[in-house]
Amino acid sequence: MAETSAFRSGGVYSPHMSPERNSAIEPGFIHRRLKFPLLERDDRVALAERVDQLTPANVDFVMMMTLASVLASLGLMQGSTAVVIGAMLVAPLMGPLLGAGLAVVQGNLKLFRDASIAIAIGVGIGLVVSLVVGLLNPGYEPSLEMEARGKPDLLDLGIAFASGMVAAYAQGRPNVGSTLAGVAIAAALVPPLAVVGLAVTGGYPLIAGNAGILLMTNLVAITLGAGLVFRMLGVREPKAEDKGPTWARRAVILLVMGAMLLTAPLFLNVLKEKQKGQDRPLSYPVSPAVRDAMRELVEEHPGIDVITIARSSVEPERGIGVLMTSTSEVSPRFVEEVETLVREARGEEIPVEVHVMRSAKGE
Questions:
Q1: Of 225, 212, 80, 118, nearest in space to 164 by CA
Q2: Of 163, 49, 148, 164, which Cα lies nearest the Cα of 108?
Q3: Which residues contact 79 (CB under 8 A, 6 or more apart)?
């Protein structure tokens, strides 16, 4: 009875402690203040069974990891976002990572070993498959999907940590289990692994190195995030000192140190991206109505040509920019006419900048 009440209150029961001390154990700050939904004893057992089934590197794990790596490699080379997302959904690597997080919280050394072996096997399979696919397709250039995995930054660390938390919470609370598909897409474990092999065979060491950093970031941060949520759910080793075994504490320290070490290259990538700027178009196309209006204008003025007309993507408040050439001098009135024409074709009062250059044909 004392054990049941201790577990339900979020405390830790130990048969080596006196009844008075057991009854004095209270939930943590988060549980007291936020009314966090602690798991009942039966729920914790069911959670451990679910995670334990996802952890071992059995035949199903090897098969799904191989197929996911093939899909990811081919999708990355083709630059197909849909195929890459499909590879994320079928990849089974999230299971062992959740197992590692649960093992550290529980102090379950056997589960931690099984999870570590499964992670190592999964990473090995993904690397070998991507290397083979890359060797069978020599001479290709990195697609945008590959380059996207070659630019990790601190945001990716936060995404991986949050993904681990969501995955662990979804396992502990089956009523929100439908979110696991979204977690698999957000975590993106297999694509960066496949990029490492493809970039190595293609002769792109920088992309391979950055993709490797992204992979390690995901592995470490997901495990830490999962362990934190499992701890918050009340899944922990029932020891009197409530510190867990020595190996578990050391594992947590190593994971935290690994995350801290990874922040250095991730932060450097943030600085580089700020210096270089975002990879996006400088401008966007205008509407067909605006293009038609400008075409009619050019037909009415034989000496006028339109070089470009576009919406600015960097500063949207600047509206539409028009660059034209003329074989003769144009009056300010003509420029105003063009601005009015663009606004009327657009159907709203927006900023319009018109620049007319003197064409060499008129000299």
A1: 225
A2: 49
A3: 143, 144, 145, 146
Q: What CATH fold (topology level) applies to the domain 39-276?
A: Glycerol uptake facilitator protein (1.20.1080)
Q: How far apart are CA 114 and CA 109, in angstroms?
A: 9
Determine the residue type at 203: G
Bridging pattern class, strands 320-326 and 304-312: antiparallel
Domain layout of the chain by residue ranges: 39-276, 283-362
Residue 145 near residue 84, CB atoms below 8 Å: yes
CA 129 – CA 120 distance, rounded (Å): 14
Architecture of the domain defined by 283-362: 2-Layer Sandwich (3.30)
What is the pTM (predicted TM-score) of this model? Answer: 0.73
**pLDDT tens digits for range 273-311:** 788 777 777 778 888 989 999 898 888 888 888 888 888
3-state secondary structure of 195: helix
